[in-house]
Amino acid sequence: MAQRSATAWHTRLIQAEEALRRAREGATPEGLAALDEAAGQLERLKLDLYAAAEMAETITQLDQLVWNAWSKKIAPDSALTREGAFGQALARVLSEGDNERRVKALDEAERALASTRRMTAALIAAIAQAAERYASRHVMRFGVDTIERVATAENGRTGAARIGSADAAAWRKYKELMGETAGASEANIEAEILRAVAEFAENLAGTFASAERDSLSASQRDVGGSQ
């Protein structure tokens, strides 16, 4: 899609250069001066479009990466999905000849970009929050103080088989906790972290979307009040 967008831009530039070349044929000195100025503006436009093409390619790749990670790895069952593919919509904006369809494609590109922006921000923020939650839960369950406290209580319980030292009792309890629920296996650790990331990301994305709607409504009210 990025290549298709770049091709569309390049085609339009070639058309503009050809139009300038034809306009120079038989032009007056004053007309040539104006065309020279237009040619200079076109050269500057080339640089602007090159920068825009690089940005579009980066955003398109980010759009694909973020939503593939979300839908295939982090939260495949989530109701939160992308609002269109940015690269495809942008390609239609640049290649569509009908103005009405171009405007529609531009709206699709803007919505797709907004959803990717929200999801990217939500995932970045969610990673930190999920890491904090996992660390807290891990320490609560497997921390030294927790293990020693539980082991000491169980070791002194009436009817329980006593172990010679507190360290031995704590070590036994640690192995028991690590093995009884398979909570230490890589798959379970990964699943727990991904669940936390998905939960935080969904909440944050919803918050960001709500804030954007509120901001848009406020802007529309301001525009309406100024008319």
Properties at a glance:
227 residues, mainly alpha
Structure description:
The protein has 227 residues and is mainly α. It has one domain (2-226). Helices cover 84% and strands 0% of the residues. The protein is built from 7 helices and no strands. It starts with a helix and ends with a helix. 15% of the residues are buried.
Oligomerization: single chain
Average pLDDT, rounded to a whole number, is 82
Percent of residues in beta strands? under 5%
SSE string: HHHHHHH
User: For the report, how would you describe the main beta sheet?
Assistant: none
Offer a concise description of the structure:
The protein has 227 residues and is mainly alpha-helical. The chain is built from 7 helices and no strands.
